[in-house]
Amino acid sequence: MKIQNGPWQAQAIQDLTTLFEGHATVRALLLKGSCANPTIQPDTWSDVDLTVIVADGTLAEFFPTLDWLAPLGTVYTFNQSSNDYTNTARVCLTDFRRFDCAFMQESALLAHPPHSEALQVLFSRSPLVDEALDRTILRPLPVPETTREQFEQMCNDFWFKGMLTTSKVMRGDLLIASHLALEMIQDTCVLAMMLRDQATGTSHHRAGGQGNTFITRLDAEPPHPFSATGILDSVQQSSLLFDELAAQWSPDYQPRRHPLLAWINTARPSSSSS
Question: Please, which domain of life does this record's source organism belong to (predicted)?
Answer without folding.
Answer: Bacteria
